What does this fold into?
Amino acid sequence: MKVGLQLASFTWPGGAPEIAHRLGEIAQTAEEAGFHSLWVMDHYFQIPPWGKPEDHPMLEAYSTLGYLAASTQRIRLGVLVSGVVYRPPAVLIKAATTVDVLSGGRTYFGIGAAWFKAEADALGIAFPDLSERYALLEDTLRLARQTWSGDTAPFEGKRVRAGYPLSNPLPLSSPRPKILVGGDGPKRTLPLVAKYADAWNVITSPARIDMHRDRLRAACEKVGRSFDDIEVTALDPEDLRSEEIPGYKWTPRWEVERLGQWRERDVDHVIVNIDADPANLRRFGAEVISKVA
It folds into this structure.
């Protein structure tokens, strides 16, 4: 089982002048500690409980991944997940391609239908209704696969048209960056995962993962695809919830037992939200990842 780390908060001592140094140190330490992947959110405000109050520091996702690519050598990088409304599809695909090339082919292309309307409204970003967002999501998934195959034929989608979808350079990941779709909706999201994705992310618990996975397996059967072709990733919220428990104290034993529940359910890749202090990451690698990964 692979273990990833999501960076949700950038509130560190020293404020904005220290963010770059601290972020690079965290990325390098996570890599050395044995984390398989490193993720950032695609938001412009903080969103409790994942980060801090909304007016605390937040970084744009793809420029942050570019910095992380230069700061590391092996760890895989991704956005968990990009809201499809935040950038024109071709621009999003180009950003993901650029990070893949600069990282030496170490990226996931995480994408979803978006949900944070208040954030979009606050910043003047168009936020169409759900059916429009899902149509845009499917077009973006189709366009990404076509672009990364090197096919420059005109693209016609439900909401997106691209007359000449050229990508030079092409990604270094083979056959493309892993396309990861986030969400668990059985009517819209899971059919898109089954048709287009290489990986899937769900926010859930070990007790509920089998239900979600069975739904995705059924969606795969409908389109004639093997469920085993899709990497199952889970974003584990328990690290955050545990802080609300009176008297709670983080221990490696607690983490090993909790991650062991994911491993028992054959989840491929679990992404955690822990205090990203470098000393804590080193301890997590030595006392947790070494036992469960």
Remarks:
- The mean pLDDT is 94.
- The two ends are 5 Å apart (CA to CA).
- DSSP finds ten helices and eleven strands in the chain.
- The first helix runs from residue 16 to 33.
